[in-house]
Amino acid sequence: MPAANSPEPPSTLELACPTCASQVRFAPGTTHLTCVRCGTTTAIEVRTGPALVEQPFDEWERDNDGRQVSSLGGVVMTCEGCHATTESAALASICQFCRGHLVPVTQPDGVVPPSGVLPFLIDRRQAADAFVAWVNDRDVGVDELKNVNAAESFTSTYLPLWTFSATATTAYEGQRGIRKAVRLDDGRVELRADWHDVSGSVDTPVASHVVEGRDLGIGQSRIVRKLDLTATVPFQPEYLAGHTATRYDVDPAAAFDEVRRKVEKKRVRNDVRDDIGGDETRIESTTTTYSDVRFALLLAPLWVLTYIAGGKTWMVLVDGRTGQVEGEYPIDRVKFTLLVFKWIAIFVLGFVALISLPTILDSI
Ligand SMILES: [Zn+2]
Ligand SMILES: [Zn+2]
């Protein structure tokens, strides 16, 4: 039994460098922590086992009925460097006084802890290079874009994502149309469908369907759609050291509503259509219920750049694994107009060449 005056276990991950006591951070593309000052590296004791453990959704709903993440407090953390205390709802943040790295080891009751993480693969320099290449491809961007100091301005953060697995069972009513040849009064033959009432039930498996747990900026969805979830590893807070990670603000119930909306709009409809069969199909009504619903929280890495150009603030996101760049940029009106004229000229020349081709061929 612990003594009554035994110290409280630390609320944050200890991230002091063993050599110089400065802060260590997770180095992208590795499995170690690197000191920001002296470069000493410490290997992370990498956890093994399943990367994404989805928990039963109905149990979570029963235990957390009506609880909203926005009403839950943060974790009080004491900075190792300056001993300032900070209460934060983030999964990882930076001390505002000394820039020390703050990573809580537990989350308050009612907050879903991450199950898996896609660790950063590309570093700040590689993210900046990806941005520069992206800028060079923006033919109509303002010249100011080329002067953005991306290497200094990027911040690294993990985006919370939900994954849901379930079986969707849909009871439906509809009609199956079988086409047959009908001879019309004027002698022509036309294919017409004979309609038969059908009803039935069809299962649609849902496997780790991803929806976003927070909105960080424009273009985020395009990055999320291309994520390679097979690279997910079991979560451990070390991967967050020196980066930031905000808590989700979309509750699991709202996330599941979103999954249902997406699954029913496309996949369920297609499955019902296939099940009805026939040459033509009519769906009259569907009712979808879900069983064995499981969910998990996953973190995906993003480099975030906000910059000022053309008198406005813009944001760019870079996938922390592939370097895919998404975002908006200020357009140079003169370059844009010239490009439009160029395309019109190409179109007109092409059209003139096409209509004069027979004349040219005739004259040969
Ligand atoms: Zn050090
Ligand atoms: Zn501090």
- Low-confidence blocks of residues: none
Shape: flat
Number of E-state strands: 16
Question: Roughly how many Å is the radius of gyration?
Answer: 28 Å
CA-CA gap between termini: 104 Å
Biggest pleated-sheet summary: 9 strands, mixed
Q: Kindly state the mean pLDDT as a whole number?
A: 90
Number of separate helices: 6
Instruction: Give the names of the bound compounds.
Output: zinc ion
Question: What this model shows, in words?
Answer:
This protein has 364 residues and is an alpha+beta fold. It contains six helices and 16 strands. The strands form four sheets. Strands 4, 9, 10, 11, 12, 13, 14, 15 and 16 form a nine-stranded mixed β-sheet that branches. The chain has a three-stranded antiparallel β-sheet with strand order 1-2-3, with no helix packed on it. It starts with 23 loop residues before the first strand and ends with a helix. The site of one zinc ion (ZN) has 8 residues, from loops. Keywords: Membrane, Transmembrane, Transmembrane helix. This is Replication restart DNA helicase PriA.
